[in-house]
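[Amino acid chain]
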Amino acid sequence: MPSADRAERLRHPEVLGDLLIYRLGQLYATAGTMTLRVCEGEFGIPRREWRLLAVLGQGGELQPSELAERAELDRARTSRALASLQARGLVERRTVASDRRLALVGLTDEGRALHGRMLPRVAAINGALLTRLTDAQVAALDVLLGALQQQATQLLGASTWPKADRRRGHRPST
């Protein structure tokens, strides 16, 4: 299919398969399944907990609220995942001496070791996905993903999108 036709389909989708979000979701689901199998099957760590380990592995100690923000998880899910990681001895929580209300979480030695074993396995999936692309295509993809993320963030912040109340089974009013 000529690139002009592909661009037209993405810009003006007529069927589900033309939607950028759907196609990205399909990619995420497929690649996510591989990641899930590595994280849970090989290491016994759910993907959400892996995300927290990965953020802490690159950022050191963080306040739980900052960790939730960086991991793009809500605070309740972050709290539950942290409790699980702490129970396994992978994460430790400490209060800040100058302000006992503040807590910081960080990886334990065991958590750092696990992160060091998991990251190369997950990175291998990333690398395998990119093998079909040239270096120029990978660089272009990086730029394009950044631009799409920036636009999505701007759109989300600039509009009032309806919120679903899933806890009560409510639907937005029309």
